[in-house]
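Board notes (copied after class):
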Amino acid sequence: MKNWFKKESKYFLFLLILLLGTCIPLAKSGYFTMHDDVQIMRLYQMEKCFYDGQLPCRWVSDMGAGYGHPLYNYHPVFAYYLGVIFRIFGLSFISSVKILFLLTLVASGIFVYLLLKEFFGKWPAITGAVIFAYAPYHAVEVYVRGAMTESWGVVFFPLIFLSLYKFIREEKLSFFVMGILSLSGLFLSHNIMTFVFTPFALVWSIFWLVKFGKMKKLKEVFLIFVWSFGLSSFFIIPAFLEENLVKIQTLTTDYYNFHNHFATIRQLFFDRSFEYGPSRPGPVDDMSFQLGFPQWPLALIAGGLSLIKYFKKKERKFLPVILLFLFWSLVVFLTHGKSVFIWDRLPLVSFIQFPWRFLALAMFFGSFLVGSLVSLFKEREYFIAIVVILLTIILNISYFRPQKNYLTTDDLILSGESYKTQSMATLMDYLPIQVGQYPKTLAPDSPWVVSGQAKITEFGKRSDFWRFTIETIGSEPVRVRVPVFDFPNWIVLVDQQAVPFSHDNDLGLIQLTVPQGKHTVVGWFENTPLREIANSLSLISFTGLILLVILYPNDKDKKTTR
């Protein structure tokens, strides 16, 4: 182990220094502007769930204009659970979010290095990792869009490819477990990245099963995917099977119609401009969609050379490179408008929203191609690697900075107009289906009487709970409306007795009738039967994985077949 560390540490340290160049602005004090500027609010809501004991978190109380929101029943959760760990150790919300972004840049580069080292050696691996880390779209994800969950989805791409390859080749339990964990990480990180990347992971697996003549291992590889699904099912199953409970049509229409967001040849290959505005319908955008220099020319050369060497010299060792070149070519094509005939025929692709999202896959597949290219120059490998690394950093490092950095604090972000803006920002996402009219202002601070007369006091709420005291005036029952969206499965109790309620109002808010007298009214958010099943599947899968590791502690480096 000591010898390995001595041998590897200098390369790893060199790579780490190179990767940190993408993160320099994150070390500055304060915060920075981004499109999806609700990351701190989302982490704040996840922390409230954690301390309220709502695990897994599904309903958040302060978003949706303050009426609540089933955010984490649908929105990927991995990054925010990780962020809560940083909060437990005393870091501010600002620092926690910035560290989460930093980790996506550094960890993804390290995982690409580990993957490429397995195929091409250290210097090609370092080169490929730099090519990947400094891809312009990486800068767009972090410093322009602030796409936390998508950035984390990308982190797991190389780890998934590595674990599947190593398991098929060596049949070791450790890689079986790593495959389950890395796929689960992807499933919990980003729904769309899961949707677009999983088919490539399956083809990658089948390729190696065929190449190594191990098709009998197909069942075990399939089990990795199934087990990953089971481990992540607490999130995946409700996210997909309860989509009928929210207004999802807003996610695929108007601005979010994918027909509006194809990239052009100029944007992909030749336009070096880098702006901080949005993707706009049509060919004129205020966001960069470039594949990057020298990323795309080197990927193209690598693919061309691998095809020549295979078809002219029959060198089968280039087959994996050809496969990745086909992957790269396909995803680049899918970003362009000429691929619309594919988009129009495939189911569910409308939820991808932006065809240029495939740039995330292009930068990963391209890094593999560039690593393979550097490995061809065996005697001059070091020199070629240094040249490519320097060229990549010089041409791309200027993209890795936010449009604006500003001094602020957690308290300022989570109060006043900033708090109001964040609470309203994601209102259109996952709005309960019965909401007929979108709120235009923040929710009232207390329930109110719709009919009758009463005094309402002591209103309070947590992430999955609310309560108030009501004293009616007169002898008639009182109709009360609570500033909380109805959504399965809220239950309402009056003096500890469950009572019926409705949402027959424009905003779809909880509404109930309270009898004459003084009462305590409580609302609890509970799981649907489907969520209970999903939670149980995750618990069973997690327990099974722990037992697998515990029962075979010395089997991590042994073959899974017995």
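Comment from the instructor: The domain at 448-529 is CATH 2.60.420 (Maltose phosphorylase, domain 3). Residues 328 and 365 are 5 Å apart (CA to CA).
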